[in-house]
């Protein structure tokens, strides 16, 4: 994969350390950095809750980014785009062909 295909910018979020009011080091959800990636839609599904009008839509994506952009991925990380959509990590693995990229399977839940 060429780096020219990394044409979408997403914010990488995860658990970042901070000092709380008791001067202890704690962790909270926070933005780590912006990265460039490629998003490939995989599939989606819809479901209803009982006989209500509440509908839940889930989409699955495969996101490719450079390994240098995310040195140590963790399952509690997620991406956010400029519209505030949250891409939750489901799993990740290296691109075994060149070992230069991460392939990260994510999901978005719309309710």
From TrEMBL:
- Judging by the UniProt lineage, the source's domain of life is Bacteria
Q: What is this protein called?
A: Head-tail adaptor protein
Q: Which organism is it from?
A: Clostridium brassicae
Q: Tell me the organism's taxonomic lineage.
A: Bacteria, Bacillati, Bacillota, Clostridia, Eubacteriales
């Amino acid at each position: 994969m060429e780096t020219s295909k990394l044409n979408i910018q997403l914010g990488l979020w995860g658990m970042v350390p901070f000092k709380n009011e008791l001067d202890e080091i704690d962790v909270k959800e926070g933005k780590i950095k912006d990265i460039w990636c490629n998003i490939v839609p995989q599939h989606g599904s819809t479901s209803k809750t009982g006989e209500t009008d509440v509908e839940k839509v889930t989409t699955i994506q495969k996101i490719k980014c450079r390994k240098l952009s995310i040195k140590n991925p963790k399952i509690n990380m997620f991406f956010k785009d400029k519209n505030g959509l949250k891409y939750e990590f489901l799993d990740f693995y290296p691109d075994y062909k060149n070992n230069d990229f991460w392939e990260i399977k994510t999901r978005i839940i719309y309710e």
